[in-house]
């Protein structure tokens, strides 16, 4: 199984077979040049002939050939490759889901499917796809990132209706991670505005995940009877308590855990559940007023048409909604969207009294314009704090 390195340029995999042939050719040229310098032209010519034959055989072997009896008589279809691009914390689930899908497809269609996988920050992954990483399926942290790929012309409008549940694949909620024993007695969003509290979160201008955090703070006021003026006042107080704004959620976690800054870290429920499964139990609170962190999935139309693998890519997306796949997401802390699996794992999740969504705040296009565009509310908060 090949895994992407985020430093790979242009979204293209290295062709290992061609690389091997190139190395052989390079060695041959060095040898031939040396022989020419010694005046032994006959040996040089003979080397050219022999290596040419060897390379022809090697390339024929690498190509696989359509004359192989297995290809012509077994009924096995040509192999298909799918490139999945997702955000970092989903890796554990997909490592379980992908083998289940490939085995099912092989059994039903007698066709091998292999996956190229790329994991990283959702914003970084979005930029990589737009810049040329040829993803067939994208499963990102927020709809806004998928919309950016749509705006780049790679995904056709209406993708939300092409998968179940309006293309929302998994869910989570915001969590407040505290120090051991919760010495500051943090219980609610309101506590984050107290004068003696230091809060750690990433920068909403650079982190998609941090936008969820910001919206959770804002909605904790507007969805409990407050208006925008009160929400602005409250959010402003919280951001005055933030000593540093790391670039992304991973850096924010490092600031809190490794550097020891802050009394509370705004994180995700799925991350703290996964940490507990890995033996690291973190003290945390799930506020009973919370935002539904909805994670979408989409087929990248331009790329699947180019790769001629749309049928398999769409089947994989559909498989992600089956109970088998949804269980794997639940096992690593995500809230599943399948009602049967939700019931099975109900003891894992703390009930939320008031749960709102990005749509309740106007949808991502309106959210971006109101809060995160240059000169919007977040920039105004930062400008006021810096005075």
Automatic annotation (TrEMBL):
UniProt-listed PANTHER family: SULFATE-BINDING PROTEIN
Family: Belongs to the prokaryotic sulfate-binding protein family.
Protein name: Sulfate-binding protein
Compartmental location: Periplasm
Keywords (A to Z) from UniProt: Membrane, Periplasm, Signal, Transmembrane, Transmembrane helix, Transport
TM segment ranges: 45-66
InterPro entries on file: Sulphate/thiosulphate_BS, Thiosulph/SO4-bd
GO molecular function: molecular carrier activity; sulfur compound binding
CDD domains: PBP2_CysP
Main location, first listed in the record: periplasm
GO terms, biological process: sulfate transmembrane transport
Stretch forming the signal peptide: none
Pfam family name, one: SBP_bac_11
GO CC terms of this entry: periplasmic space
Superkingdom, taxonomy of origin: Bacteria
């Amino acid at each position: 199984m090949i895994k992407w390195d985020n430093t790979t340029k242009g979204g293209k995999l290295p062709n290992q077979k061609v690389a091997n042939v190139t190395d052989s050719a390079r060695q041959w040229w060095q040898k031939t040049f040396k022989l020419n310098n010694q005046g032994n032209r006959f040996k040089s010519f003979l080397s050219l002939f022999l290596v040419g034959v060897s390379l022809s055989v090697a390339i024929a072997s690498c190509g696989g050939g359509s004359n192989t009896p297995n290809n012509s008589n077994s009924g096995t279809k040509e192999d298909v490759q799918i490139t999945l691009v997702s955000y970092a914390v989903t890796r554990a689930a997909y490592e379980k889901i992908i083998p289940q899908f490939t085995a099912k497809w092989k059994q039903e269609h007698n066709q091998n499917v292999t996956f190229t996988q790329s994991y990283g920050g959702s914003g970084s992954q979005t930029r990589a796809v737009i810049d040329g990483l040829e993803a067939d399926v994208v499963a990102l942290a927020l709809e806004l990132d998928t919309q950016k790929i749509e705006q780049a012309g790679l995904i056709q409008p209406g993708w939300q209706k092409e998968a179940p549940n309006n293309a929302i694949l998994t869910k989570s909620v915001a969590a407040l991670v505290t120090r051991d024993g919760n010495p500051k007695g943090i219980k609610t969003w309101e506590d984050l505005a107290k004068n003696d509290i230091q809060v750690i979160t990433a920068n909403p201008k650079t982190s998609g995940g941090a936008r969820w955090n910001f919206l959770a703070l804002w909605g904790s006021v507007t969805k409990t009877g407050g208006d925008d003026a009160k929400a602005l006042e409250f959010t402003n107080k919280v951001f005055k308590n933030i000593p540093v704004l790391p670039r992304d959620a991973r850096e924010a976690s490092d600031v809190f855990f490794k550097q020891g800054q802050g009394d509370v870290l705004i994180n995700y429920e799925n991350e703290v559940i996964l940490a507990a499964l890995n033996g690291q139990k973190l003290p945390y609170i799930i506020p009973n007023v919370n935002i539904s962190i909805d994670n979408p999935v989409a087929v990248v139309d331009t790329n699947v048409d180019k790769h001629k693998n749309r049928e398999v890519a769409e089947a994989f997306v559909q498989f992600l909604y089956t109970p088998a796949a949804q269980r794997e997401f639940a096992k690593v802390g995500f809230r599943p969207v399948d009602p049967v699996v939700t019931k099975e794992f109900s003891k894992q999740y703390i009930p939320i009294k008031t749960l709102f969504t990005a749509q309740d705040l106007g949808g991502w296009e309106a959210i971006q314009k109101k809060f995160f565009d240059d000169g919007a509310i977040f920039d105004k908060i930062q400008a006021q704090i810096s005075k």
